[in-house]
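Hey team,

Filing this mostly as a record. A colleague (T.K.) asked me to run one chain through the structure pipeline before their review meeting, and I want the input and output archived in the tracker in case anyone asks later how it was produced. No errors, nothing strange. Just documentation.

Input sequence:
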Amino acid sequence: MRYVVRAVVGEENFVDMTPNRSNNFCCGGGGGFLQSGFTEQRRAYGQTKANQILATKAPYCITPCHNCHAQVHDMSDVNDHAWETVHLWTLLNLSLGILGPNEREYLGEDLKGVDVFHPESEM
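Output structure:
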C-alpha cells in the first residue's frame, strides 16, 4: 500500500507513521466497534492512533477502509485535530482525474478543486 500511496501523492508528500507496518497501532474502529455504541470507549482506545497521526504533523491521514475513515475522522473532529481524513479510494480517483464534484465534499480546500471536470468548458 505504501507504494500506491507514494505514487498517488508523490514521494515528497508521503509521511509514514512510527511505528508502522506490522507494529502499527489500530485505529480502534474496526471489528464492529465503530457501530457498537461504546463511543467513549472507542474514542479512548483510538487516542493511541490519534497521537500517532498527530506526531507525523501531516495535513492528511489516508485511510484504506470505511471503519478506519469514520474512526480517524471522528477522532479529528471531537478533538479538533489538524488533519483531514481521506479515503485511499478518493485519492486514487482524484489522481486519475475521475473524482466528481459531489465526491469532494469532505476534502480539504487545497484538494477540492484539483482536476475538476467541467463539461461546459469542453464545448
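Quick notes for T.K.: Residues 47 and 75 are 8 Å apart (CA to CA). The longest helix spans residues 39-56.
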